[in-house]
Amino acid sequence: MAIYTLPELPYDYAALEPVINPQIIELHHDKHHAAYVKGANDTLEQLDEARDKGAWGAINGLHKSLAFHLSGHVLHSIYWHNMTGDNGGGEPLAADGAGDLADAITESFGSFAGFKAQLTKAAATTQGSGWGVLAYEPLSGRLIVEQVYDHQGNVGQGSVPILVFDAWEHAFYLQYKNQKVDFIEAMWRVVNWQDVARRYAAAKERDDVLLLAP
Ligand SMILES: [Fe+2]
Fold this sequence. Notes:
Layout: H1 22-53, H2 59-82, H3 99-109, H4 112-124, E1 130-137, E2 142-149, E3 160-166, H5 173-176, H6 180-187, H7 193-205
Antiparallel strand pairs: 1-2, 1-3
Helix pairs in contact: 1-2, 4-6
This protein binds fe (ii) ion.
Residues 28, 32, 76, 166, 168, 170-171 line the site of fe (ii) ion (FE2).
Catalytic activity: 2 superoxide + 2 H(+) = H2O2 + O2
Function: Destroys radicals which are normally produced within the cells and which are toxic to biological systems.
Domain Manganese/iron superoxide dismutase C-terminal: 99-199
């Protein structure tokens, strides 16, 4: 039972120019994201087979593969919607329905500028491949920044990603070469705050998802 499918991009390949060129978006979505979807489905099939045969010799590798590909699929599915070429960037504003998000960022990080500096640094200083992520942490009800290794490492259980910056070389190298910091700084110009605010509101509604004592 194959479960995961590649979502359509919410815009055309050139929609995020000049911050991200069309060639990057096309390859990133049609090849890289597609590979994570296929990898997650293939791994689930291999686990089905392992159960059927009682053949568990590859179990460690299969679980590593499942976490990698599934997390890659989840993060990229959020990533495309976190960006817009239509009045993106700036800060979350109450006038755009993002007032609660703006307040949560200030409460959690002291100021928008402090948050922006932390997420920029977290994304730009990933070692190897990774992501900078703004996540809702349901146990405390606050927002946190995570520096994710690959797609799945260095993550607190239960946190919900609401704004993700892909810092893998495939996200920028064709345009920015080795200047990862320049790419991350440019990313702020296409952030879709209305989408981030929608994700924040949805995550907050599931506050008790962990069923742990506060
Ligand atoms: Fe990516």
